[in-house]
Amino acid sequence: MNERIPLKKKILSENDRLAKEARDEFSHHSVVALNLVSSPGAGKTSLLERTLQALGNDIRIGLIAGDVQTENDATRLIKAGGGEMVWPVVTGGACHLDARMIMRVLKDVDLDRLDLLFIENVGNLVCPSSFDLGELMKVVLISTTEGDDKPLKYPAMFRRSGLMVVNKTDLLGTSDFSMQRVVGNARSINPDLEVIETSCRTGVGLDKWEDWLRGLLASGQ
Ligand code: MG
Ligand code: ZN
Q1: Which CATH class is domain 10-218?
Q2: Which ligand is nearest to the CA of 129?
Q3: Mean per-residue pLDDT for 99-113?
C-alpha cells in the first residue's frame, strides 16, 4: 500500500499534540486566537491592517504573520500599528503553518499582554485546513475576484471555518462573481458558516467585522 498515508497520519497526529499545547496556552491566558486562511491575494494582510487601525487602541492585538519567503506582510502590519506585537514566520517554502512553528513563536510572546491573536496563514486553501494551530476558530477569507465556486473546490477549508469574510465587495459587478452563489456554495458545505461582506479598500462592512470580533471577545470565547 501507499506508505505516504501512514507518514501523513503521523505528522498530523504530532501536529495535533502540539496544537493542543498551544490551545491550552491560549485558554490559560484568555487569549482568543484566530487562524486566518485564504488564497494568495484575497486581502488577509489588508483586513488585519484595517483591524489594527480600528481596534488597536482598545483591544490588545498580536499577530503571527506567516509567509513562504518574505517578511513583507509582517512589515506592513508593524507599520499599521502592530508594532512589537507582530511576529513573522517565514516557512522557507512550506505552503502552510504548523503547530510546531506556532509553539516556537509562543516562546517569545507574553500572552498576558494580549486579548486577541491573529495567525495569518500562508495563502493556500488546501493544506492549512489539515493543520490545527490551536486556534479557537478558522476564519476563511475569499475575494470577489476569485471564482464563487471556491467553497466547492476546497470544501475542507470551508467546513472547518466558523466565519467566511467575502472581501473586495467594491469590485462586485466587474466579474461573474455572485454573492448569492458563493454564500449558497459555502453553506451547502457548512450550514452554520457565518458570513461577513467587506471592502478593505472602501471600508464598507468593516464595522460588521469589528462587531463580530468584539462579540467573540465579550462572549469569553
Ligand atoms: Mg498577506
Ligand atoms: Zn502545505
Answers
A1: alpha beta
A2: 2
A3: 97
